[in-house]
Amino acid sequence: MIALLSVALLQVPAQACHEAPTGLKAECARGVVAAAEARISGTVYCYQPDGPQTRPYCLPEPHVASPSGPAILEPGPQKADCSMSLTGEYILACGALSLAREEQRMFRYLEIAERHILSGEEPDETVLLSGPRSLSALVDSQQAWHTYAALACDQFEEMGDMAQISSLGCRMRLTRERTHTIWHHYLSSAWECDPEAPEPTELVGDEIILRLWPAEGAGGPAEDAWCRPAPCLATACGT
Question: Is the model's pTM score more than 0.85?
Answer without folding.
Answer: no
